[in-house]
């Protein structure tokens, strides 16, 4: 005898587009960090030709200039998590925007290959921080139903940044000292990124995990709108449960041990 069919779960109610507008706006501002990631990674492909002629680089020194950004990226990615856990997502992302701006200015005015290499390391620091924290910040401000799609916006912006780097390389090809302009243009989205993040709310999840319940409620109300208090309270309750989870606290202190653990936390 055939077993009866399993009951079908009721469909999940979708939010209307209007209630998503604040979240989409915040996600777009944060994703400027991804755009800078892509631009500063891709711009060297066109800039290197004139850099080599201006500074008389050898193949070895050219390789050092190109790869130095990876050194900064490793340092930035490794340190961003601890800083964000301690000080919050938004202040660290604002700092990343300042780093991007400083790196773009250093690169565009670099008088020597050594200074340019140092500037590339600084840009790498910004890339490392952005690659670590932008998707985390977007995930923590997004409603669960749209979290995957909004986090994917960061990947789209990285790709767009690479495309814009190639476009600027082509457009500025015949300008005197074109590589300086190629690097300097990145300061514009970097400033917009920083100014935008200053106006954004802090991650409600981070606020709740740190015990700032009222600030977390205010941030969630701003993001979800005043007409959906039930969703706000549900997300606050979930974050509070996480805050009281001693296993999660232990995992934070024993990051290397987590790699060999069979436990999988959602």
Automatic annotation (TrEMBL):
Transmembrane segments: 20-39, 59-80, 92-115, 121-139, 151-172, 178-200
Membrane-related topology note: Multi-pass membrane protein
Gene3D superfamilies noted in UniProt: MFS general substrate transporter like domains
One Pfam family from the record: Sugar_tr
Protein keywords: Membrane, Transmembrane, Transmembrane helix, Transport
Primary localization: membrane
Subcellular location: Cell membrane
Protein's UniProt keywords contain Membrane: yes
Transmembrane among keywords: yes
InterPro entries listed in its UniProt record: MFS_dom, MFS_sugar_transport-like, MFS_trans_sf, Myo-inositol_Transporter, Sugar/inositol_transpt, Sugar_transporter_CS
Origin: domain of life: Bacteria
UniProt domain Major facilitator superfamily (MFS) profile: residue ranges: 26-266
Similarity remark: Belongs to the major facilitator superfamily. Sugar transporter (TC 2.A.1.1) family.
Protein's name in the database: Major facilitator superfamily (MFS) profile domain-containing protein
